[in-house]
Structure formats: structure tokens, C-alpha cells
Amino acid sequence: MNQATKKTIYKIIIMATAGTIFPMLGGCSLVKPQQNIQPIVVAPKSVVKKHTDYMLYQPLKVSNNTTQSGRYQTVANQASLAQENPLLSIAQYKFPPSVNTIGQAINQILMNTGYQLASKEKLPETIKILLKKPLPASQRDIGPIRIADALNLLVGKQIYSLLIDPVHRLVNYKINPDFESFAIASSSVGVYV
Prior knowledge:
The protein has helices spanning 3-25, 81-84, 102-110, 125-131, 147-155, 180-189, and strands at residues 66-68, 74-76, 90-94, 116-117, 141-146, 160-165, 170-175.
């Protein structure tokens, strides 16, 4: 192919491209707009403004205990279960190396709930001893879990039951009846460390 033929081919390609692209860039100005186009009304006349073809937005009618948060979505105006009872909140815990005992882990879990562990005078002897024991490696990363379930998990939910005082916002434990005989036997033998 000689040089003149290549130039001719390039001119044809440029002219063909310009003929299709430039009208698109100009908003298809080659098409003559039609006059007197009437808007299509898809809603009853009471909903459509008389001077435009836009539909009026009418908010969804909702009851007094809900708030419209979007065009098709409403939200109840009430506290969530976790807001009513912070111990039912879902949380995930990864205890830092500074947390060494079960008692320290329980205090860290209770830190932002408004609850605290009952005073030492009110805690059972078996719990006082358990709180001083080292935190197991398998329990250094807990969750996502409810806070109350995490508190049960750390002491052994089969052995102890969680007691909650919502008036004073205190947490305590009670040994389950099936394990009371172990606690009595170990105290008489002097197994406590």
C-alpha cells in the first residue's frame, strides 16, 4: 500500500467518524423537535400540579410512634432491647495482655454497661476464688456475643447462674445446685488456692 492510499483511507475513516460522533455531541441537532407535545399524566389530576408535569410527593401517613426515615421506610420510636437492658447488647471482646484473671475480664466486660460486680462481701466464696484464676487462652477472644452470655461464659455457665440486680445495677453469681456438693467437698479438703 502506497502513501497516497493510506492518506485516503485515513480521510475516509475521519469523515465517517466525524459524521457519526459530532451529531451525538451536539445533542442530535439534526432531528427537528416536535412542537406542542402534551405531558402524559399517569396520576389523578388532584395529584398533578396544573402548570407542570411533576407528581406531588405525599409523605406516607404513619402512626404517632413511628418516624418516616425514607420514602418507603419507617422506624419505630422506641428504645431497642439493648438500650433497655445493656446486658443484652451484642459485643465482641479481645482482651489485652494486661487482663490476666477472670475477674479482670469480667470487670472489662462490665466497663461500659453501667453495671458492676457485686461487692466482695456479697460474692460467694467459690466466685471469689474463681475471679483470681488466670483467664484461659481460649477465652481471650470472645464474640460476637451478648454481654450476659459472655459473663456466664467466663465463669462456666453450667456451674454458675448469673444474678442481676437491675435496681442497683449489680452482677453476682450463684452456684447451680448440681455443683454445690463439689464446692462443699473442696472447702473441707482445703483445695482453695
